[in-house]
Specification:
With 957 residues, the protein is of the alpha+beta class. Helices cover 32% and strands 21% of the residues.
Length: 957
Amino acid sequence: MTSASASSQYTAKDIQILEGLEAVRRRPGMYIGDTGPRGLHHIVYEVVDNAIDEAMAGWCSKIEVRIHADGHVSVEDNGRGIPTDLHPQTGRPAAEVVLTTLHAGGKFDKKSYQVSGGLHGVGVSVVNALSEWLNLTVWREGKEWRQTYSKGKPTSDLCCGEPTDKNGTLIEFMPDSSIFDEIEFSWETLAGRFREMAFLNPGLSIELKDEVSGKEKVFHYEGGISSFVEYLNRGKNTLFAPPIVISGQREGVSVEIGIQYNDSYIERVFAFANLINTVEGGTHVSGFRSALTRAINESARRNKVLKEKDPNLTGDDLKEGLTAVISVKLPEPQFEGQTKTKLGNGEIKGIVDSIFYDGLMAEIDERPDILKPVVEKAVKARLAREAAKKARELVRRKTALAGLDLPGKLADCSSRNPEECEIFIVEGDSAGGSAKQGRDRNFQAILPLRGKILNVEKARIDKALDNQEIRTIIQALGAGVGEDFNVDSIRYNKTFIMSVDGEEPTLVKDPFGSIRQVRIGEFIDSVIDGRLCPDGYQVLCFDLESKVTQFRPLQKVIRHPIEEPLYEIRTAYGRNVRVSSSHSVFVCNDGEVVLKKGSHIVEGDLLVAPRSINMEGKDLESLDLLKELFERKNRLDSNLYVRGKAIEDLLKNRILEEHTDNPELTEKRVEIPLDIREKLEAARKVCGLSNAGICEKTGIKQPVTFYSWEKGKSCPTVTNFQNYALAVGLNPEDLMDQVNLRASSLENIWTNQYSGSCANRVKPYTRLHEIPESWLEVLEGQEIALTPEHYASKAVPRHIPVDANLMTILGFFTAEGSMNQRQGIRFAIGSNNDPLREEICYRFRQVFGLDLNWYPGKNGRCGELKILNSVLSSVFRLVFGFDKARSYSKRVPDIVFNVPRELRKAFLRGYFLGDGTIRRTGISFSTTSKDLAAGILSLLSSMGIIATLHSREPSDT
């Protein structure tokens, strides 16, 4: 990075004025696209882009963007700061010129910025014009400068403040509510933009804070485009790794492209010109595609991956599974449209084509793992496209909806005006029945779907069109598909997909068959936001025909706002059911299970609920704490150690592997008995070789070495001994049985060196963070323990039994336990529970091998059983799910839903001993947590027990 003193090269004379600022407030759409959400976010980008330009020039390493609670935005960077000296043309401070004059900036020649993303120049001047107020702070050349504006006009002079050693610019602005439709920023939109910028500027940190939602994140990636591609392919099976990254410069244009293929059928190409996301592509994308197609075809022919009779692959064939990031930086970009969504520079196509073609051909030659899987996938894509063409012809020939066996049948609307028509795609008969009753037949259509719907993201087009439900949707919408798609032919202007309430707790089964309790909203958010892949998950479903509730595959996850009444129904058993007005619930009517609209439920209706839930408990004998904590090691807040002889052996093997090319350290040594030494010496004297010749054949440098062997002062390696015997004319195989093998040099070091030395890399323990994943399987079956950092004697076994002892402990802890890293794990023992002390201590010792300590209560307070052990705290916090759990937020640990019936009963017993009551009419479990109540109800239901839920508000005392 250039030294800060060079900031004097960027001064007021570098600011050029092209035209005024008069029309911005009158026609804002001409400058920011529109006055809706897109335009609102665009003005944030304009300010941030100025800081990005500083980063591209090598002056800025950190940008902070904050969305404040009142709706105003602040953007701060540590660049050079906007110049504050007087502009030679206007006589005004350059900072004021930049903020009040359209097309004023340091980006219109190559003196201040070689490359810029703001060439259109609307920049902060437009932001200023469209803001109710704007405050500018500049730290530059040892001084702080401030100025305020309102609706594009200065309301104060540029004032010099206190001396400072800080450099940079802070712009705070409030978007004008009289111009923008709504002042509401989207975290996802801003985070997506800034994530891209951080990927494209390795080393740059962009910090985003949203005071409204409380979210904050720092985007910082050292890996650049390679990391960007890996991020886009997260959770997918890639055809090769790492990504290919090609970069080069030509004619003042910098090109960097990263690509990687995955096994999906979706193409994801992100193209940038001067860091501007050119969503409509442009000449750089055209150059990339032509080079990719040409390089793959030529390499495939040359390496005979494509046969002579095979046609060349087309660009369309190579799209499936392609993930690519294209970034070009050029001095004078030509964008089509003010919002810069397509690059138009004609010369860029040839430059990108040339650089990427040359680089890709070289990569293919150097990496044999690339070509074959890519070509095989492209050939399959070509065959699928041909099959899809036939399938489209079949779909095209069918009249709209004619002859299709629609599940539940489409209930169409009477209107044929697409502008006013709506279609609701609902979840099977439950929603379909009531939605049909509650709709307006004039303009609202209902399409119930059921059965497994294909995930088209991971399916070829021919497979998608072969799916009955997909064809149903295609024909219902009427807009065609693929090459025949025409949005003007769509039959409905609005399409709604119905879902369920987000706060409801429910049980899901993950792809590994483990049952978990989740909140529907949190689960959906994690899928939509890309933190969780829904493939393989199952949810509880009620079968209307068999009357059985069981886990069935999850078809699709959708998130949308509710724009209709949401009803909460409370049953006589205290259960709550939430249902929207367009959804239905099952009720019992004259012995038959039928559907009834949520808004039509009245007092006295009999809601249908499952008597029991089949949890199909696993035969889980033990829990591998090492594996569980390893999977969560990034969330550990203390150093945990893994101890055992096997750790020492693995560390030795690691060092041996590091020195495989140094036999002097790793090979066994040969102890030569006196008679063999004499035999070697005699053979040497008559072999006819000079000392230099013997050294050359043996692989040593000095004769003193073999003299030392013959005198018994040192021991050669096995290889050196055998080479020496051959050199003097003896058969080494005949001698090996007459010598003794001793430890290698490394083994001698490990035997004799003080094991506690800081320099000793081989110890019978290591930090859990430092264990590679490959060790987990190697350590299986070995005597391994987990310990806190400084307490080797407080070891917890790697495997703990999953039995009644553990379930009872978890149940009692859920009721009466608390924990934190400083105080450890605590079980509250009131006077009524004092007889349980011995049982809890015994069961805890049986599971974890450690003793709980008893602390009697004082001044009427209850006593505590407590243990301070960072391993156990991590297990309870991360594995059992008690992280930051308070009494009102506790929940049943997920492991409890996955054990046999008898162990679930042991958990309930443990909980009941802590927070249970026996009454004349039955028993009760108490809790202040809604999630915990839902979990206990599910456990009771798994045993065929129908429980009543009672709730009351807390008292004032």
